[in-house]
Write a structure and sequence with these properties.
4-stranded antiparallel beta sheet, 6 helices, 3-stranded antiparallel beta sheet, 295 residues, rod-shaped, alpha+beta, Tetrahydropterin Synthase, Chain A, 9 strands, 54% helix
């Protein structure tokens, strides 16, 4: 009798467990559950825990991962505004925001990659068609627009991804830029040309600075020479004034001797020149050359 009761209790427990799992579903943290009755969604559970449902075949449910995921786009060749082919590999960080829309339009997380790839690739082709290659690759940082281009692509796809697929795209970025072989030579030529422009600009700035330094130096030399000439003229004037004073004092002491000395200086100056002068011996200062008879 006791064994019979034990079997009944055990059977009831098993039946209870089976019924429990038939009428409930477990939603973990970071998951969503969409419950469909006869193929039509009737409930969406976003909170973690146990939730009720009818057993199969009356209701079916799908668990959708709501955590952020990273998707890498395929290699796609596209044209820039300056008609250069590029192969741009990018990534997108996304998550399911509207599980019902996602379930109805895509169904599973694995199938979302194909939708995202087409959506992001079309946006990349459109945005890169409005930008030159130098916006992605350039030695001049003023030409680079990588961050702006990523934002433009995100702006183009985020609303459509949310309304059509129930997906929020949190970030789009570039992982790698590849160039077809025909473009590699162009890129290096462009980099050399930009380096040559930098070199020419630096040389011009150097010449301008050197010219400025030379001008300042010439101005300083002119100022120093002017000060020196002024000082020399002042010293010469003072010396001549002092010499004139000495001559004047000598004239006061012995006028006859002063006149004789000045005549001798004039005679020396005239005789030392190569000019032939014929004057009478009675004119000064040649009168001193005549020998006078002793009285």
């Amino acid at each position: 009798m006791g064994r019979y009761i034990f079997r009944i209790i055990s059977g009831l427990v098993v039946v209870g467990v089976i019924l429990f799992y038939m009428f409930t579903l477990q939603v973990r943290e970071g998951q969503y559950a969409v419950v469909a009755r006869l193929g039509k969604p009737v409930n969406v559970y976003k909170d973690a825990g146990l939730h009720r449902k009818l057993p199969w075949p009356f209701e079916r449910y799908a668990i959708i991962d709501g955590r952020s995921r990273v998707f890498n786009t395929r290699h796609t060749e596209m044209l820039t505004r300056d008609k250069k082919n590029i192969i741009l590999l990018s990534y997108a960080i996304w998550r399911v925001e509207k599980p019902l829309v996602f379930f109805q339009s895509i169904g599973t997380v694995d199938s979302a990659d194909t939708k995202l790839d087409g959506l992001i690739t079309n946006a990349k082709i459109s945005v890169m068609g409005k930008n030159d290659l130098s916006a992605l690759v350039s030695t001049n940082k003023d030409d680079l627009r990588v961050g702006e281009i990523e934002s433009e692509i995100l702006d183009m796809v985020e609303e459509e991804a949310l309304t059509k697929y129930g997906i929020i795209i949190e970030q789009i970025g570039f992982k790698r830029l590849s160039l077809p072989e025909d473009n590699i030579k162009y890129v290096f030529d462009q980099m050399r040309a930009e380096r040559a422009q930098y070199a020419a600009r630096y040389r011009a700035e150097g010449e301008r600075e050197a010219s400025k330094i030379r001008s300042e130096t010439d101005l300083e030399v002119s100022r120093i020479l002017a000060d020196a000439n002024e000082k020399a003229a002042r010293i010469k004037g003072e010396a001549e004034a002092q010499a004139a004073k000495i001559y004047a004092d000598a004239h006061k002491i012995d006028p006859e001797f002063y006149r004789f000395t000045r005549s001798m200086e004039s005679l020396k100056s005239l005789l030392s020149s190569q000019t032939t002068v014929i004057l009478g011996t009675d004119a000064e200062p040649f009168n001193y050359l005549k020998s006078k008879s002793p009285k």
